[in-house]
Known about the structure:
TIM Barrel, 10 helices, alpha/beta, eight-stranded parallel beta sheet, globular
Amino acid sequence: MDYRLFGNTGLRVSAVGLGAWQLNNPLWGGPDEAGSIRLVQAALAGGCNFFDTAPGYGAGASEQLLGQALRGRRQEVVICTKFGHANPHQADFSVAGLRSSLEASLRRLQTDHVDLLLLHSPPGDLLDGARAADIYGELAELQHAGKLRFFGASVDTGRDLRSLALTTASHAAEVLFNAFHQEPRRAFGEAASRGVGLVAKVPLDSGWLSGKYDELSRFDGIRERWSPAVVARRAALVRKLRVLLPPGLPLAQAALGFVLAHREIATVIPGAKTRDQLAANLAAAATPLPPATVAALRALWEKDIADDPLPW
Length: 312
């Protein structure tokens, strides 16, 4: 496993972490409670030390299972959780709700602090430190009290990452970044110059870059948002991308390798539902993508996607 510095926090994190949204989450076809605990323990055994969760993942089940699986190993790991979407029907980014949300997360995680606390995909005005001084002031107080080590936000665009890095005291950002969504890369340098550690979320484009979907795929639940035209376009782009890869390299491993080729990224957080998926994800840390392939994937995005972004 490759370990990287997380911004200027002093934390060292595994290049491949574990996105824990699927733990004991039937909405996503995740493993049951016992299987979830085994999956986390297998991640630990494979060198993973970064675990990403949130109160809304499985209505608290993700945090609770991480707490159980990491019992006795807390000092070996970096835990990132979030604030703002504990209730799936109503976001709450109020200063009044922040402390109580964090305290509930700490109870579920069986710890007295989290390493990272992020505003969970907040509205844009909360990424402006001048306009949201109260929320960042509360985060700083919780940091001073030892309830969290560092704070930041989960964002989707370069503009939002730039605002967070330049106007707040944040040292962490989770950013939507993959071979099909490269726009945030334009703000990586500014974030790095401010010492912000970057976590890459949705690295497999919600499954498209794992190779399991094509133009005949049909979706339900949250993935129903993709129209037939979007499905057909993504399938065509996957075919174009495959041609650019070294022979024999699995698509998912290449997609993770592309993200990790950007050294501003400290860790990438693919989910996994099985130990085989987990092992394949972890292997990406040991198989750097050739620079020529990285350049080719950047060129594909510039030519076919940059001016007409794919809807997430």
